[in-house]
Automatic annotation (TrEMBL):
Residues 2-58 form the HTH lysR-type domain. The keyword Chloroplast does not apply. Belongs to the LysR transcriptional regulatory family. This is LysR family transcriptional regulator ArgP. Pfam families: HTH_1, LysR_substrate. Gene3D superfamilies: 3.40.190.290, Winged helix-like DNA-binding domain superfamily/Winged helix DNA-binding domain (1.10.10.10). Keywords: DNA-binding, Transcription, Transcription regulation. It comes from the Bacteria.
Amino acid sequence: MFDYKLLAALAAVIEQAGFERAAQALGLSQSAVSQRIKLLEARVGQPVLLRGAPPQPTELGQRLLNHVQQVRLLERDLQGQVPELDENRLPERLRIALNADSLLTWWTAAVAPFCIANRVLIDHVLEDQDVALKRMRAGEVAACVCAVERPLAGARSLFLGAMRYRALASPAFIDRYLAGKAGPQALLQAPAIVFGPDDQLQHRYLASLGLTGAFAHHLCPSSEGFVRLMENDMGWGLVPELQVQNELRSGALRDVSSGQPIDVPLYWHHWRNGGELLAELTGYLSRSAGRWLIQAGG
């Protein structure tokens, strides 16, 4: 039988990205948290953490974290069924990984009514849509939005829709780098803007135009900053159409070429045994996300 105080310490260290903040979250001393991790490792007979900065779970630690996530959600169901356990219950917290572009555009409007009606608090973990599933695999989150269809063992995935990205730049940037240039080859010579090391959208767009090879680019890990750089003539980039409706209408941003936009599919991944709350949120998203995301054949 697991000692859930020990598992809670493991979850806190990973979720808070360190022992000090984990101790603050649990109301314990840092030494006490460390002792609980050591006791957990002694009981399972192997390490559950790789003690780096930040600490990372081992393979066993990941399995234990996944178990903790599901137990928390199942406990919430039990509290709702047994009134004696439900007194003074705080709002439920869900840790969900998703990409910054979704958070900035459709996500908030899609989930706000559900969270308000069900007293749910969300810890948002930002991660690129191509790699957000690694957070769930590591046991750090209960669910995630990502571009990968195949679910993890013990989980399910649901297609929510696709976000349309367009290759845009300011008129001044286009005049300086692209106007009068023959073909899309000029894009390789013009500075681009890339969200981060895991962002491959610009690479995919260039490949769709038959262009390969290295290209100069800025790194900007901020959805708002990404557009600000473009508006100030610093580069071209792939931006969600949902994010720049005003800029497109005003002409502040324009398409850099006649290439097709890129539609990035988004999938909702959640644990099969995640309890009623996660199942209800999944059903709600399946009904609401289509108001903002492109559906099959759209």
